[in-house]
């Protein structure tokens, strides 16, 4: 029976691969078919969005779909208009938005700026989500098949799990950054290779470049990966110190080279993120708000073939945060894999690291079936540590989801040496685990169409240089998604006040992170009118002062808005009777100077 490959065996495998001049043609064909299969499956998952990418919106989280349209439109302006990459002056006028303090995905959005420019941001979103799912699956398959396991089916199962697990499908409902995880497997592999002699400089530089690239895709995922690898290294050293002490010097030196390389390249971007205007600290919610429910481990996600959205909703914080949901048999098979591989120190430390991150995802106190038990957990001790306080706690569970895929790959690899009866029982378990988790196509809704006022460029006659186009409802998180979507699908050709982004709640008095611009009289007034339909007396002087602050050139009422008649009444009281132009009612705002 072939023993489970420990860390030293991983190194030997890498050396064997490096010595080969090339791979057999049949394996190249297998890799090609695997890549095409993952791409096709990812397309099937996103097919409803592909039917009309600029007209449809991901239903699971249309707000976050909108914020990534903003990121893509910003990158389009960087490439085609020479805009600053780390700052946008087109949203939240006149203050602007710190793009490094947001999930600006510059490493993805800038190369795809031509797609956004010529085909529209909706096409780019569809491309990124599809490529994220399929690309992540293939990246894990590539690393597993070449460096970690012998069996191509084992690598395929590991890649498929890591790319299409419930957590990934859930985040595909709007989190472009969290489905684009194809750099992470190579970061993991480069870290493992640092234990090899002669890898300090070259390996450290390569790792530093990968880290830099990942920062411009998703810093949160990079943090999770760093924590996991740190726990793995600590666990391995504790359980196999005699082996670890032989490599710790050049391993540490390689990490140092990587830190220096990435530190030099990221010094200014990270300074801008944490110290330039628009920076913030903490999140607009407490750590107890978004945590992993223990019961979700053995349940099905809402997008799984066996899932039920009504039931899952009680165990998950949102449609984009089904971060566990392995299913009952899936959970059993993950446990079986851990038991099978426990004698390997390397894989045992991997499993322990995943379990630690899983416990962290439970938050400060244990939650079961939606009930907060009050039982304290270790995360309560570190919940307010800087950087950790920027993380949505339940997302720590994405680590054990990926670890599960890697462990299943190793378990399948080892099962090949089982006796026929035992091997058959193992594969029955795998089928029962994986088939119910097959994802259904992502749900979509039709977005509000843009009126001729925008599509025909009529707005240009009303928005002079330095002025903004103000849509009502105002672009804000949850309540003004149409106004934000219109601006981003026009690639931010016109600037607009407010918007959905991350920034300080009320600077300089309060720099706590917020999903929207600081409150103003007019923004609060229009929000309450839209929400409740009640039309209060309007303080016209304060209303006009806010329009002046926002540098408004024209105010446009979005047709079909919630409580549209009430919103119109407020605008008429403040600005007089509107003009009807290009399918909208609008109010030109005279300049005060």
TrEMBL record:
<keyword id="KW-1133">Transmembrane helix</keyword>
<feature type="transmembrane region" description="Helical">
    <location>
        <begin position="99"/>
        <end position="119"/>
    </location>
</feature>
<feature type="transmembrane region" description="Helical">
    <location>
        <begin position="349"/>
        <end position="370"/>
    </location>
</feature>
<feature type="transmembrane region" description="Helical">
    <location>
        <begin position="223"/>
        <end position="241"/>
    </location>
</feature>
<feature type="transmembrane region" description="Helical">
    <location>
        <begin position="253"/>
        <end position="271"/>
    </location>
</feature>
<keyword id="KW-0812">Transmembrane</keyword>
<feature type="transmembrane region" description="Helical">
    <location>
        <begin position="33"/>
        <end position="51"/>
    </location>
</feature>
<feature type="transmembrane region" description="Helical">
    <location>
        <begin position="424"/>
        <end position="442"/>
    </location>
</feature>
<feature type="transmembrane region" description="Helical">
    <location>
        <begin position="325"/>
        <end position="342"/>
    </location>
</feature>
<feature type="transmembrane region" description="Helical">
    <location>
        <begin position="390"/>
        <end position="412"/>
    </location>
</feature>
<keyword id="KW-0472">Membrane</keyword>
<feature type="transmembrane region" description="Helical">
    <location>
        <begin position="125"/>
        <end position="144"/>
    </location>
</feature>
<feature type="transmembrane region" description="Helical">
    <location>
        <begin position="200"/>
        <end position="217"/>
    </location>
</feature>
<protein>
    <recommendedName>
        <fullName>Glycosyl transferase</fullName>
    </recommendedName>
</protein>
